[in-house]
Specification:
heterodimer; A: mainly beta; five-stranded mixed beta sheet; 5 strands; 10% helix; 37% strand; B: alpha/beta; 38% helix
Chain lengths: 67, 272
């Protein structure tokens, strides 16, 4: 296992987990989401090949109500 | 019914054009502060708005993926979803947020930029706003920008390539109405892109006044969501924006100091 930062908090994942794998593990597949790793947007077509590294900062966002 | 609108009304109907796309409604609404998603859906529909702002936030880990989602009740297939940068206090945060938003919304470039200065006033931080606008325009975004009601800043943003200028009428969420119509008029008389009042509208007459000044549109959230009956207020705002626009196009009568009778003096009937 290794630690990443997920939405601002420490999170343990399997070594060489992909972004896709992370989203699947979190049970978030099928939601309309956007993902950034270390402040860089990772488009969905790259999720399966983007392997996460220790201490990567991952942001997973969605649209909510706002003015 | 809308379908039975008289020909005269159709003849004066003119659309709002932003970044080359045309909208029938000049009312833009936010999707925040509603009791639930059903109220969001109903109020949005009652407003007649076609452009709806949304915020971009981190998902709650452990969230049920099947739980209803904002974009289910205001679907991008029906509405133009305008992601905003509410809560961003630096250009870097705002740019990052909108890059995520663009990904979230299938590459759509139309965005609302706001970079705030402090929590008490939510006044825009204009140096950061200008910095963010420049970066975003260069990156291909179509930027609608929340700004101070300062004609110099507005011109800088327009020259930079922003597609709409959106000065505040009073503080975000304050409902204080149009506090400086003169500044708005200065911005309006020079602007070559749409000018929309963003923030400060409290009730229908405020929206009508903004439109009578010649604003191209009005963006609001709390005025609707914070009303006792948001759905009825959404409808009121729709009418106010339409009425204000029509009055602006019609051209109001001049104000006079003294009275002027509406009935002719000739042909009056004497008592004897």
């Amino acid at each position: 296992m290794m630690e990443i930062e997920l939405n601002g908090t420490p999170h343990m994942i399997l070594i060489s987990q992909t972004v896709y794998g992370l989203i699947a593990t979190l049970d978030l597949l099928g939601m309309r989401l956007a993902v950034a790793v270390n402040r860089e947007v990772v488009p969905p077509q790259l999720w399966p090949q983007r392997i996460l590294k220790e201490l990567d900062r991952v942001e997973i966002v969605r649209a909510i109500g706002g003015g | 019914m809308l379908m039975t609108k008289p020909d005269a009304a159709q003849a004066i109907q003119e659309n709002l054009t932003i970044a080359g796309r045309s909208y029938r409604s000049r009312l833009l609404v936010g999707s925040g502060k509603y009791r639930d998603l059903e109220e969001t859906r109903a109020a949005t529909e009652a407003s007649g708005a076609e452009i709806i702002t949304v915020a971009i936030r981190r998902v709650n880990i452990g969230q049920d993926p099947g739980a209803p989602n904002l974009l289910d009740v205001v679907p991008p297939s029906r509405y133009t979803i305008l992601p905003n940068t509410a809560g961003c206090y630096t250009a870097a945060d705002a740019v990052h947020t909108l890059k995520l938003a663009r990904e979230l919304l299938d590459g759509r470039q139309l965005v609302k930029l706001e970079v705030l200065g402090d929590q008490r006033t939510l006044f825009p931080n204009m140096p950061e706003t200008l910095r963010a606008a420049e970066t975003l325009v260069k990156d291909g975004f179509e930027v609608m920008v929340y700004c101070s009601d300062d004609p110099i800043q507005a011109k800088l943003l327009e020259d930079m390539g922003c597609v709409a200028i959106m000065p505040l009428a009073s503080l975000i969420g304050s409902g204080m109405g149009i506090l400086n119509p003169w500044n708005l008029s200065l911005i309006l008389e020079q602007a070559q892109v749409p000018v929309l009042v963003d923030a400060g509208i409290g009730t229908a007459s405020d929206a009508a006044i903004a439109m009578e000044l010649g604003c191209d549109g009005v963006l609001m959230n709390t005025a609707i969501a914070g009303a006792r009956d948001p759905i009825r207020m959404a409808h009121a705002m729709r009418l106010a924006v339409e009425a204000g626009r029509a009055a602006y196009l019609a051209g109001r009568m001049p104000k006079r100091f003294a009275a002027s009778p509406s009935s002719p003096m000739a042909g009056r009937v004497p008592a004897l």
